[in-house]
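Structure ticket #2291
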Amino acid sequence: ATTTTATTTTATTTTATAATATATTDNIAKDQHEEASNLIQIGAELYEIFSGRDPYKFEADDDDDAFDGAVVTSTGTDDHHPTKKRGKKTPEKKMYTPLGELGFPPALCGIVSGLLDCEVANNGRDNRYSSSREVAEDLRLLVAEPRRFIFRPPTGDLDLSPSTLYGREEEISEMLGAYDRATNRRSRGNELVLISGRSGTGKSSLFETMRRRFVRRGADVVSGKFDELRRLHPFSAIVSAFNDYYGLIARDERRKEGVKDAVKSTIGSGGGGGGGFMATLIPSIRKIIDVEDDEPPLRIAGGAALHRLMYFFRVLLRVTCRRDRPMVMFLDDLQWADEMSLRMLLCLVTDMEIHGLLVVGSYRDNEVGDGHPLSLHLLDEIRDDSRRSGSVVSVTSIRLGNLDMKHANALVSGALRTVPGTARRLAEAALRKTGGNPLFLFQFLVSLRDEGLLRFSLASGRWEWDIIGILEKDISNDVAELMTAKLLGLAPEVREALSMAAALGAQSQRALLEIIGRAEDGMLTAAAAAAAISGRLDVAAAEGLVIKADSVYRFSHDQIQRASYMLIPESDRAAFHLGLGRTLWKASLPEELDDHIFVVVDQLHRGSGLIVDREEKRDVAALSLKASKRASCMSSFLPASVYLKSGISMLAEEDWERDRDLCFDLFNSCAETEYILGDFDGMSEHLEEVFRRAEDYREKLRPWFTLVQATGAQGNALDAIKTATNVLATLSNSILDLGEPFPEDAGKGAWKQDFAITQRLVSTKTEHELFNLKKANDGVMQEAMKFLNLLIQYAYTEKQEYLPLVASKMVRLSLLHGVCRESACGFACYGIVLCGPLGDPAQGYRYGKLAIQLLERYQANDFLAQIYACTHGIINSWIEPLQASLPLLKDAVGAGLATGDTVYGSIAAVLYQARALCSGQPLAPLLEESELYMKQMIEHKQHFTCMRHRSARQAILNLMGRSRDPTEISEDEMLAEENLYCVEEDDKTKGYAFFKKNVIFYRLWLCYLFGYYERALEYANKIREAARRESSLFPTLCNHTFYSGLAAIALARQNGKDMYASDIDETIKLMRKWVILSPWNCEHKLELMVAEQAYLEGDNSRAARAFEDAISVAGKHRFLHEQALALERSGIFYLECGDHNVATEYFKRAHRCYTEWGAISKASDIQVRYL
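Resolution: structure written out below.
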């Protein structure tokens, strides 16, 4: 009974549910019927409005044959026309004359016909409207864009412009915002926009759309594209963009004249400067300045070449890019960018002296992960750079996805030049097949047209399509495969030309095609190898597959390039590349081979496994070496390394006998490149092979030099010194007389005997004879000079006792064997030794002058930073006014950057800042320069030099009132900023000792200035011996003596003279000695010390005169800060003597001087204490 009841209940429920569903379906059908009836009546009313007659009411004399329109299903009772009350009556099946036959625009006809042809049932018709809202939207579109829909009727061509965007309004707004920030004068930094998305989502199209907007706003817009098949081409995209940029400037005569002098002064015009070097990379620079090609280029290699290249790119933008004339640079396909290009891009966007730069980059996010170079060398570095050096780069990230239905419909209707409502069913089908990828959508429509499923009707002037056939069409999920099918429909010779172009890369220069065309026996068919290759590509251009711009053919999209490349069977690709490489190699003229060396070598390497001829392998190895040298000159060391390793793979055992020089050159160059890249294991492997093969010391010199550099670069400066001295000992035993070898301990004057021999030899030469010493022609001697000059750098930080020996040997070699470029460095170092340890600044000054003369004689500009740092930064300070060295030290900083000598460029920056601070230069602009120099040091990884720089910078900040305690300089904070906590307190690293000494010196100075005399003297005693050891650094030694003497006098006045008498007498004695050498720098210091001593001894009248002399001389010699100090000390003197009015006047004057200097904290100290 229970079971029967349950069954009955279930049946009842089921019956009720079915009845409810039937009623609901009936209601839906009724609603659909009413909506369709309404739409048909709207169509009839629109038809009558435009044509002036009822679509279903015919005149008696009408010819029925004239009505060939669509048939409309009607359920109404009115046989003639619909009533005005919608939904009540509809016409039965009738014929109407299409509006197109009455001369109306096709877009309007499509809307009206779509309404009149509406049916209730979904029977597969594709142009049915589903609601009146859709009709209203299309009508509004006609009103809003009459030019597009009414006055430009569709033709037989699909309107598939890649620059037309759909659904990217938000992204456009973000890019305009980035542009506005880049050009805003209040902006602190540059802008970087990164557009990501999968292939075909319209990343490049988004920028091309923005290009016109940027140009209208006054920007210079340029672009470059990284190429998967040309990833070894150094800086390809950036160089291309810069070449276009300076081409734009050159075409504007007024602007060209405006920047000509600035460009010339920035990079020079001769081969020895940067003009010739940059003109090789960026030919359009020659249209702005005249470049002299006959001057010898600088001898710069390794990391210095990279630093130099980055410097020139940056300074070029600094003088040409402005916020009122910004540069917008688009770099496409960053996922294929090489590491060096990304580092270059980082340098450009983080350079705070470049104003008005917007960089837009695009990449495929599905190919870029956390370990990708784009993440490691750009995005992560931007964040780190902002944290370390305070640069401000605004990064805008834009991700493009596939189109939704609304925007896919907009794309399809736009391609057909019709309103969206009439193309909705086609768009739905296309979206279903392609997923909404814009490129896939474009190519899908083209394939439908080619297959006849989408066709243009001449009769109606509209596109028609077979929706059933489209829905049943099989389609690949890969757009490249879809493109391949399209390419197979082209003529064979066009396909071959496209395959060849694809093998060359994303773009092909016409010059390359001409070389192939004139080859007698190309690897292609006669048609493709003939001069008509360009004609074949023109056919492809007409199909929209490639774009022809000036002398370059460029694939419309990399997926089209990929499809063209896939036409070459995989098994044949190596032979294809090899044949193409051989054709270019053999048919090129020498200058053409130089221009296209990377393309030729790339092609040969891709097919090198098929080369069997021993002679050809050797020739390919030589060509690889040539390409590597060209890449190294452009600072692109990773491609250079690849070329070299490929060249080495071409060698066989017999080549070491037949072409020994080639083998050594390849292995040595590869080791040098690996050292620069930090691949020390690979470097060691190649150096071991060279050492194993070397038969005498001459063949070992080059790898020894690389080994010394690499050892020093890995932080093992002492090992580098040991290796270098061993090499020099070998040379001394073999051919050169270098005197006594370097002793293990040269600290207790062991160098003096060797130095005395050199001094006796030098004393036999007059000034004229020294300057006109013969030029060295001994190759071994010149190699020895290179090792000795390398030793200067390591000895300066790790083993200073070696410096006199190094200088002595360099000068002696120059006197005995003739001078070379490194001789200038030797004489400069010799002058430093004379100024410091030997205490003969006058003679040191003489040899510093000789060093500069030799620098100019040999145009050795790659040593300019080193020699200027030694002479103007160290030697000349003993004799000349400190202020005289400042512009020359700034030149040294610039020269170091321009030549890639970032070591001595950074040292020059430290010397400049210290001398500027010690000579009373205004603090605010000095701080700005300090920030810039610090950023450069961080970029070039000059960490220990940067530590010394930070100590002076912190002293400036303290004086300007930007610290809690004006006397405190925190070592820990600066070490944390430099990430150098790894340095232990035992001072094993001399670079840290330099840093610590600098910190203590500035503490001494600041403590004295703010009246903490006991602490000042404690700090002075801590570094007394260090200051004497560094006696060559006159400003440090002089100021240490000056402030320690003043502190001793101040404490003697408090605690009695006996305890401090020796310190006072010694410091004043030294200052009197230095006044004779350098009155400009020391006279006012001596007068102030004399005044303080006289006051201490109770001789007030003498003290008053000396105070006044100190004030006067300090002002006359432009030592503003020490004029302020003399005024303050005079005020204290008069205050303690009881003359308050006079004291107040001195304090007021001191306050004004401190304020003018920019020392806000010290001016406030005066205000609080005395005013």
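Closing remark: The two ends are 113 Å apart (CA to CA).
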